[in-house]
Specification:
3-stranded antiparallel sheet
């Protein structure tokens, strides 16, 4: 397989050419780096979230008659 990068109209593409003659062309993935600050949930927020998820799970189970 032959792999090359091609730039067209400001976009970078990866072009893969296989021995069989097949050619695959796709956009090169862009690596985006985000500075994300992890926000810790308070105990009350975490308990509320856990309760909501548990209730949703139980509702789904009851709908499936499990």
């Amino acid at each position: 397989m032959n792999k090359t990068e091609v730039i067209e109209n400001g976009n970078t593409y990866i072009v893969e050419t296989y021995e069989s003659g097949a050619t695959v062309k796709y956009l090169k993935p862009v690596e985006e780096i985000f500075d994300v600050e992890e926000k810790k949930l308070s105990d009350i927020e975490q308990a509320t979230l856990d309760t909501a998820l548990n209730v949703e799970y139980l509702v789904c189970l009851s709908e499936l008659n499990v």
